[in-house]
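ligand=adenosine monophosphate
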Amino acid sequence: MTTVGILGGGQLARMLALSGASLGLRFLVMDTVADACAGQFAPLLVGDFRDERALAEFAAKIDVATFDFENVPAESAEWLAQRAPVFPNPRALAVAQDRLVEKSLFRELGIPVGEFAAVSSRGELDAQVALIGAPCILKTRRLGYDGKGQFRIRTRADVDAAWEALGPQAQTVGLIVEAFIPFQREVSVVAVRGRDGEFRAWPLTENWHVDGVLSASLAPAPADAALTDAAFAHAKKLAEALDYVGVFALELFVKDGRLLANEMAPRVHNSGHWTFEGAETSQFENHLRAVLGLPLGSTRMLGHACMLNWIGELPSRDAVLAEASGHWHDYGKLPRAGRKVGHATLRADSAVELAGALRRIGVALGRMAQVAPVMDRLL
Ligand code: AMP
């Protein structure tokens, strides 16, 4: 019996455990809190990721380790890697944890990125804002997620407020300033690389964010073949450079028909949740196959799919379940402002049918603002 250890016990670990059950896998999840939602389906070890005793107990009980959470300290991943196979490898995790290191690697690999610079003092921020120009965004290098740890500098008059908000973190998690990209669209490549180097990507996905948090995803993203091929080529080059094993996402902006990389996520990704029902093999199953050295499944998709995120609280599920290809995911979490508590996936054989289903859901749930941009793209 193979036991997969997952560091982090949120909805990603929960969905990994659900899809791994059919492969006959056992799981052990480690999280810092006792009510981590993956603990409803897999044994949960509660402990701090820096606690070597807890990590040693975890290592002793598993055959292979992986992540639901990219901010596991890189040293803890290194420590664990001395005792058990860890995929993706700790270096890949460390690169993805630091926006400056990550963007520098993109640039080194010839993956286009917007202007960016490290900031360690107020003087440097002033100098870089003058160089890059406003608008720009000041972000923490590490530990930011879902738009947290970011401050938009609209004009140079905002620099004081930006420094007040994030300056204290310059010496702890570090800061980076990035040019604001006036993009038309956001897309992501969700891809998997096996232990033997085999690379597969699911169809390009288009994403819509609200307040920095993913609101909706559509696959396949309507895009020309050249753009799609370029996005896949960037993802493949990145995976190879990091000797990456498992699923990851590369988030990209589309501006005037050109791609600019934003960030990578070294794990299964919210913009790949639609693969559960919309693809031959889901990102969750393929991640497990990859880390276990099993053959990868096909990433072919079936028709068109849209994922809608439920943030803060779940709406009524009735309208989604009433759809012929409506699927409901409740993460078993308590409602809380800003928290991802579930999602729905709608699948259809044609773009027009999918738009129709989205309209019905939007009306029934009073969520036209969430579905309208996706409908516009489909029609
Ligand atoms: P991030 O945490 O970097 O993924 O940022 C969350 C969201 O904020 C992104 O998906 C974009 O919608 C927006 N954003 C982040 N960085 C930039 C940027 N440099 N220019 C424009 N929008 C951005």
